[in-house]
Write a structure and sequence with these properties.
heterotrimer; A: 492 residues; alpha/beta; Rossmann fold; 2 domains; six-stranded mixed sheet; globular; B: Rossmann fold; 10 helices; elongated
Chain lengths: 492, 311, 314
């Protein structure tokens, strides 16, 4: 047994984040770790990587008890982690990043760059990773950065690689690349702890799966002996995979974007149209310009050409402020970077876009604000200590609910949702789907963008394909298969 | 005939100021980066008038606070070969030492007026900060305090001029056993009036009894002004204050007859006078003693304050 | 134990203030702990508080204004020169405010429009302003022929209470209210928390940056004019000394807030700590170097306390 935990617990301020975990991992296996947000997955990872100190229980490494007080100690025995939020130095080259935290080889008092390059490219080759190591991390694409992190992890002899939502920002094709690398690592005997919300990946990659629920370990199962529904059943207390029935009554055209071209050239010629009552799925692979297209429409990203029409009226020079007043709303994919202010209270986040509603002469009525915010967070069932809690302290799913609460406060008619369920637990995901369908049924238009094709097919009435910065086919979501959709993306 | 002789003699007597005066016809360059400053301007005007009355041609070169420009202008003057003497006014020669070297090599005598002295120069006329310190401290200790009592010192020792006054204060304090130093407080240079006022206010509260402080000695005028304002507000009219420099705000406070009793004026006119005299000696072929020459400072008190008030 | 740590984080700075007051009260009971001395302290910190509120505004949007000091100097010089040249006194105080508003607006505009680091922009502006001061005064203190009435603002007392203390209090209340209860304050904090999120949320970020820098310049200018009025002359570097201490006060002030963000009340506490230290240590007739060492150590200590508290919260 490579790794074993015995009666491991961890509490914060008297509340158990993990309770009595007895978990084990074999060398050379791919082990899935699933659970809703807040189930304790991150806490376990942080204990194994030495970020949190261990207070109760013990960790055995190859049968021997080990102390993991610092990340360095953890790395030294062979545990590496790759996070959702990548930890590369943007201005360093691939080689420098691969050597982060390691001693540089020296020759005659000077850094031996040749030796460094040799070792890094050797490691990369052994993993079958092709990467221009002289590029700065900032210049690399998301999958390239993930690859670089893996190279970095493998620079030392890594016996256990922890991958925390590694495909969150990767497209399917890019994910395939990652899966190939995982296979290579596995064949070399490296154990992999794979943490994700994506069921398909779990079933495709893992040998065994451990399920966490509310800080406790439910059980470890063999992947081949289980299926998605039973797994989901173990993760949540009350979950049923309900399909949202679409009323399918399309109303007037609310938003029409024509031949949008962004100033930075990422969006080349994209159009889309959303009607009242519909959810328009937008699907495209990474780098297709889908995020940028929404940002252009919303007036956040400078446009070079094209026009935006709201209810048939042409809008010139939209800014986010103007867009909000005209009934547009953007749920950004970059939750921490563009949708939340982590350091501010939930109340302040929710009220951010609609302060004017509570203010007279620039002075905010605290009472009105609190009432409105309370009603909204109650409606969305945000789990929190109080409305004065800082947004950063919430779990991913609840953070996203706060973002939706903020958006709903402005009573938008058109929702532009970019990966709205990214890194969100299964329950919240379903709630978000339901919410958007409700809004559509009430006569709003919803643009739903996700890199999870299944999700798009689950919720959308029609699917707009984006590829290479251009809009392509518009498909009726009526008996189409994922292969058909992917075919549109790949065969351009 | 006799009459004519008298006239001729009289003329010769007149020129006599210049008879020992090859100074007539000489080209003198007065160079400064700070003509905007009141005192610098005063010295330049005095020298210009005096030298021109003696027949010299005077060029005033002002570079508006720009030392690099001053350096190039000195190069110009040194290489043109038409100038017979250079006077640096209120400009630190060590900052332009290389350019002055050109002038020295060209054999042009360089004088300083309130500038500083480096080897190669003829004379720098300035005031002696130690002497000024001595003058005012003696006045405080003897005349104002009668040799006994308590004193607070407001100082700023990082300044090369001010620190010499402080050393004079230290030296004299040792000679007066009946005078005790309550505390010495450093006053920052950015807003000395306001800061000194705050410091003195706090010290007054800590020494609230009347006559617990005999005098406040400030190493320059601005803290003295701040101290005076604090004393006035607290109604402590028994505490005596002095400054150094003779700035106009201080002078008008002395004239009002309040807490501020005295200051020392640097004798800028005296400095200008020394420069002209030494230049005359040099052109006359006499040996001059190279180095710093001090214009004695003047004590300003209520008795003579009216002479110093600018209209 | 944990609770103690937590309250240490929230109230550590206030506790430090209380301890400082207690220590001085024991060491100098007759002089320090008196109504008169507290009135005295309130006047002494009044100028620093006003300029520090300006710094608080700019720091609330996560930017820096290094030109507060020279803006204050310029404010004093402009207003004194106008008074010397016989302008009606109200104008002598109003015109510089308008000019500073424009200067601050330019600061904000450069920062927002060209995305230049505010650090660099305002450093440049500070140098420009010093140049302008030199051009206006030739480097000399403006003193001659300042009318008597010019000093009224800085020296008038309402009974025992100096007008300066009242002005300070008015600014604290006004800007405390603005930052807590108005749309403006909320948006400034939003921008400071996350500029991109604020943009997406429809806030006109450049506009609010301009406002923050403009208000900061105006408050600096007012401080400078009050210094000049207080001392009856305008020193060309009068405001420069406030630059560092005002930011020290804002940083200490951040530690008073649970979120660790700049806030007006915290800034007042910060100024009070610095002012009371100066006051008490001078009363103890402590040499200046010791005052510096103690003051600096307390600033560092306050910030460490906050970090420790935060680490615990995570």
């Amino acid at each position: 047994m490579l790794l074993q935990t015995k009666h491991l617990s961890k509490q914060f301020n008297g509340i158990y984040a993990l309770r009595d975990i007895n978990f084990s991992l074999e060398a050379g296996e791919v082990h899935g770790l699933v659970g809703e947000n807040g189930a304790g997955k991150s806490t376990l990872i942080k204990i194994l990587t030495g970020v949190y100190s261990l207070e109760e229980g013990e960790v055995l490494w190859n049968g021997q008890p080990v102390q993991l007080h610092t990340p360095v100690e953890s790395r030294r025995i062979g545990i590496s982690v790759i996070h959702q939020d990548r930890t590369l130095v943007p201005t360093f080259t691939g080689i420098e990043n691969a050597y982060l935290g390691m001693a540089y080889p020296c020759k005659g008092g000077r850094v031996d760059w040749k030796e460094m390059r040799r070792r890094v490219s050797e490691t990369a080759q052994a993993l079958g990773i092709e990467l221009d190591l002289n590029k700065m991390a900032a210049e690399m694409s998301p999958p390239q950065r993930t690859c670089l992190e893996i190279v970095r992890a493998m620079m030392n002899e890594c016996k256990l690689l922890i991958l925390d939502e590694p495909t969150a920002s990767l497209t399917d094709k890019e994910s395939e690349l990652l899966f190939g690398i995982i296979d290579t690592l596995k064949s070399k005997g490296t154990a992999i702890l794979y943490v994700t919300h994506r069921m398909d990946e779990i079933f495709r990659l893992t040998d065994r799966i451990t399920i966490f629920k509310n800080g406790e370990m439910v059980e470890t199962v063999w992947t081949k002996d289980t299926d998605k529904d039973s797994l989901i059943g173990k993760m949540t207390d009350n979950w049923s995979a309900e399909t949202i029935a679409s009323s399918r009554r399309m109303g007037e055209e609310l938003l029409r974007a024509e031949h949008i071209q962004s100033k930075d050239g990422i969006v080349k010629d994209a159009s889309l149209s959303v009607h009242a009552g519909e959810i328009l799925g937008v699907f495209g692979l990474g780098g297709s310009g889908r995020t940028e297209l929404l940002e252009c429409i919303y007036g956040y990203r400078p446009m070079q050409g094209g026009q935006v029409m709201l209810k048939g009226k042409k809008e010139e020079n939209l800014t986010p402020g103007k867009a909000i007043r005209k009934g547009l709303a953007l749920i950004s994919e970059d939750r921490r970077g563009k949708a939340l202010i982590g350091n501010l209270a939930i109340r302040e986040n929710v009220a951010l876009s609609c302060l004017g509603d509570f203010a007279a002469g620039g002075v905010i009525s605290g009472k009105k604000e609190r009432e409105a915010v309370s009603a909204m967070v109650k409606r969305l069932q945000v789990k929190m200590a109080s409305e004065e809690q800082r947004a950063i302290e919430l779990s991913g799913g609840n953070q996203q609910k706060v973002v939706f609460a903020k958006t709903l406060m402005t009573h938008p008619q058109v929702f532009l949702c970019d990966e709205p369920t990214q890194a969100v637990d299964v329950m919240t995901r379903a709630e978000i789907h339901r919410l958007l369908r409700e809004q559509a049924d009430q006569g709003c238009g919803v643009v739903f963008m996700s890199s999870d094709l299944k999700e798009v097919m689950e919720i959308a009435d029609r699917i707009q394909i984006i590829s290479g910065g251009r809009s392509r086919e518009l498909l009726e979501n009526d008996g189409i298969t994922s292969q058909q959709v992917l075919a549109c993306c790949y065969h351009q | 005939m006799k009459k004519l002789l008298v006239v001729v003699l009289a003329l010769m007597m007149l020129l006599g100021t210049v008879a020992h005066a090859e100074i007539a016809g000489k080209q003198v360059a007065l160079m400064t980066p700070y003509l905007g400053s009141v005192t610098t301007n005063q010295m330049v005007e005095y020298m210009k008038t005096d030298l021109e009355s003696k027949g010299a041609t005077v060029t005033v070169i002002n570079t508006n606070n720009d030392f690099a420009m001053l350096a190039s202008r000195i190069e110009d003057v040194a290489t043109s070969g038409q100038t017979d003497a250079i006077v640096l006014v209120s400009a630190d020669p060590s900052q332009i030492a290389n350019q002055l070297q050109d002038a020295f090599e060209a054999g042009i005598p360089v004088f300083g007026c309130d500038s500083g002295f480096i080897d190669g120069m003829a004379v720098n006329a300035t005031s002696d900060n130690y002497q000024m310190g001595e003058l005012i401290v003696k006045y405080v200790f003897d005349e104002l305090m009668g040799g006994k009592g308590t004193v607070i010192a407001l100082t700023h020792r990082p300044h090369p001029g001010v620190v010499k006054r402080c050393i004079a204060f230290d030296d004299l304090l040792k000679e007066y056993p009946d005078i005790t130093l309550i505390t010495e407080q450093h006053v920052p240079a950015e807003q000395p009036i306001n800061d000194a006022q705050t410091i003195v206010e706090n010290l007054l509260l800590a020494n609230a009894e009347k006559d617990s402080i005999t005098a406040i000695w400030a190493a320059w005028d601005e803290p003295a002004i701040g101290a005076t304002q604090a004393l006035k507000e607290a109604g402590r009219d028994e505490v005596l204050v002095t400054g150094v420099d003779g700035n106009q705000q201080a002078i008008s406070l002395i004239a009002e007859g309040g807490n501020l009793k005295a200051t020392v004026a640097q004798n800028f006119e005296g400095m200008a006078k020394i420069v002209v005299e030494e230049m005359e000696k040099l052109f006359d072929g006499q040996e001059i003693e190279k180095g710093e020459k001090y214009a004695p400072a003047t004590l300003i008190t209520l008795d003579n304050v009216n002479e110093f008030i600018e209209k | 134990m944990k609770n103690m740590k937590k309250s240490l984080q929230a109230y550590g700075t206030l506790l430090a203030l209380a301890i400082i007051i207690l220590v001085f009260s024991i060491l100098r009971p007759a002089a320090f702990f008196t109504v008169r001395n507290f009135i005295n302290i309130s006047r002494q910190i009044s100028l620093m508080v006003i300029i520090s509120i300006g710094a608080t505004l700019v720091m609330s949007i996560n930017e820096f204004d290094l030109s507060v000091g020279s803006m204050a100097s310029l404010g004093g010089v402009m207003s004194a020169l106008m008074a010397v040249n016989g302008l009606p006194l109200p104008l002598c105080f109003l015109l510089p405010i308008l000019i500073s508003l424009v200067i601050g607006w330019i600061n904000g505009w450069i920062v927002a429009k060209f995305k230049v680091l505010s650090f660099i922009t305002t450093l440049g502006m500070s140098t420009v302003l010093s140049g302008v001061i030199y051009r206006l005064t030739g480097g000399a203190t403006v003193f001659q022929n300042i009318p008597k009435g010019f000093s009224w603002l800085g020296t008038f007392k309402i009974g025992e209470i100096p007008l300066l203390s009242v002005i300070m209090l008015a600014f604290v209340v006004l800007f405390g209210f603005i930052m807590r209860h108005t749309v403006l304050g909320r948006r400034l904090y939003a921008i400071g928390g996350n500029e991109e999120t604020s943009k997406v949320a429809g806030i006109n970020v450049p506009l609010y940056k301009n406002i923050a820098f403009a208000l900061c310049a105006v408050l600096s200018c007012i401080t400078g004019m009050l210094i000049a009025s207080r001392v009856g002359s305008a020193n060309t570097t009068a405001g420069d000394g406030y630059f560092l201490s005002s930011y020290a006060a804002v940083f200490i002030g951040c530690t008073v807030s649970k979120k660790g963000i700049p806030n007006v009340l915290g800034t007042l506490v910060g100024c009070a700590i610095l002012g009371i230290l100066t006051n008490g240590l001078t009363m103890l007739q402590m040499p200046t170097y010791m005052q510096d060492i103690i003051t600096g150590a307390i600033i560092i200590f306050a910030v460490i306390m906050q970090k420790l508290g935060k680490g615990n919260a995570n």
